[in-house]
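Researcher: I'm preparing a figure for a lab meeting and need a structural model of a single chain. I don't have an experimental structure, so a prediction will have to do for now. The sequence is pasted below. Please return the structure as C-alpha cells so I can convert it later.
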Amino acid sequence: HITALTSDKTGNLWIATDGGLQVFNPRMNQFSNYTKENGKIRTNNITALCFAKGNKMLIGTSEGLIVMNISTAEMTYLTGNSTSISKFTNNYVTQVFEDSRGLIWVGTREGVNILNPTNDVLDHLTEKQGLCNNNICGIAEDKNHNVWLTTSNGVSRVVIQRNHEEGTYNYGLYNYSHTDGLQSDGFNLGA
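Model: Understood. Here is the structure written out cell by cell.
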C-alpha cells in the first residue's frame, strides 16, 4: 500500500510503498522501481518522502533514512549522523522533513531526530525534553519558521533558536491538546 507521495523539481512523482519505491516520469509515461529484489534499494518498506535542497530525495524506511542524490542515484544510508557517532532514537522513520534552515527532521515512534547536515550534529526531542508524545505523525513548518509536530497525543510547536557562535540550535517546546481547542489529541500518520 502507498505510504507517501511527493514530486521532484522535474515533475516526477515519487511513490513510497511497503513494496519498494516507485518513480513515475510523466514525460516518458514510465515507472522506475527501486526494490530490494532488483538490488536498487536495501529495504522495501518505504515509509516517508521529502524532496530536499541539492536535488536530493529524503527517503524514510523501517530501517532508517536514505538520502538519495537524484542526479546520480547515489544513496547514503543513515541510522544517525553520517559518522554514526550519534544514533536515531529509533530506526523506523514515520516522517521526514527538511526545514527552511536545511535541518533534516526525522520523525520516529520514539521522538524526532534533527540532523544538521552542515556540521553533522544530531539532536533529539522526546517526551523527556518536553515533547507531548514520542510517536511522530506529521511535520510542518510555518511562516515564522517554527516546526509543528503532530503526535499520537497532541501537537508540539518547536521554536528554534540558532547559537551563531557555536553553530548549534536550541529548541523551545510548546504543547497543545484538546484543552487548547484541538478536536482530538490523536493524529493519524501523515496528518
